[in-house]
Amino acid sequence: MKTNFSVVPKLFKKDKKLSMKMARGFFKMGLTMLKKRHNFGYDHMKNFCLVYMKLTPACNLRCVMCGQRGDKGVLKGQTGIDESKKVLPFESYKPMIDELAKGNMVYYLWGGEPLMYPDIFPLVKYIQDSGAFCSINTNGTLLEKNAQRIVAEKWHTLFVSLDAFEDVNDAMRGKGSYEKVIRGFEAINREKKKQGSHLPFMGIVTTVTNMNYESLADLAEASKDFDIDWHIYNLGTYTNDQIVAAHKQYMKEKLDTDIFCLEGYNTGYNENIDGERLHAILEKIHSTDYGHLSITVPALNPEKTHEYYAKLEVPVRNHCIVPWCQCNINYNGDVTFCADYNEYVLGNITQQKFSDIYNGERANKFRQAIDSCEGGIFPGCLRCYQNMLFGKKIKGF
Question: What's 340's DSSP letter?
């Protein structure tokens, strides 16, 4: 099965300059895996390359497995309404983007639904004008009405969430969501032809659950007609009561931090997945030419797929590199290392220079704490998506 880097060669043929920007980010992250892990007394900006920006908690869907708005999401109801009032305007991000402009950054914009962020177009333009590579993760339901402007402003990449063929997808993400995404793909591709542009590059991200894993091949077959560049199969972020309890205890003892977000992934949507059956489905998908790349995250050995879902306490990736090369900016300006588990705040970009936050005492205390853990991950990191992307592959998996 392909690695994340396998996207680059195909895109290189279409846009050499843009592909080089993406490749630099992958290369810098790869070097971070090999370098000695410094904590205090080191300029961590030397290795910094990837910025997640969670622009808004607002979303127009209620996907059942979502850690924010799903069955056990932490931003449901009044909490989500209250948090939406804290969203920063575009102007608040400019100083940080300016500060990072010489660093060959890769930006990943997400939410909520980032196309619901009021200043999304000026923000993307400012990031891309700074020389950075910019990608947007969207649920795809708002692409159709924004297609003309997205193509005209040459957005770099779109990662579009789609989980199954129509009926199964809509059961997970909301009635009518599949059709809206398909119309969005059609509108983007129509505008690309009309405007004579190859941008944005575009692909699907599918989260594997016990609701959709047996119908993944149906979506893959349908995707032949989508005119996309890649399809990523995300095996999913999952946890359980025991892991949540251990993580809460550790973070309280070592970093004096109360943990809430991890509970949003204690959903049970990993249960009763037949690993052998899932691997056979993925093998068939990977051996079929749909006109675009198929990538599984994490790529596992066949006999280990069942363990990924049935034995959540068993690590499959460790030695997370995120605190040494990445970070997340929350919609209120808070800086955290972890995108999904964002309770431990390093600082706020409206109050400090980004580099001072990234090299600050709280950041180094976090690095020291995770580095001292067995396997270089916290108890709650066992199925974290960032760890699956950037952690070290454990022998046998």
Answer: S
In terms of Cα–Cα distance, which of 108, 112, 165 is closest to 135? 108
Three-state secondary structure readout of 6-32: HHHHHHHHHCHHHHHHHHHHHHHHHHH
Put simply, whether the predicted model's pTM sits higher than 0.90 gets the answer yes
| C-alpha closest to that of 286 among 275, 278, 295, 277 | 295
Mean pLDDT of the chain: 93
* Nearest CA-CA partner of 384 in 238, 184, 250, 257: 238
Decide: helix, strand or coil at residue 93: helix
- Report helix angle 7-14 to 16-34, nearest 10: 150
pLDDT of residue 11: 64
The SS3 of residue 279 is helix
* CA 388/CA 382 separation, integer angstroms: 9
C-alpha angle with apex 338: 394 to 254, nearest 5 degrees? 85
Question: 27 CB contacts (<8 Å, ≥6 apart)?
Answer: none
Q: Which tens digit of pLDDT belongs to each residue from 115-152?
A: 999 999 999 999 999 999 999 999 999 999 999 999 99
Residues above pLDDT 70, as percent of the chain: 97
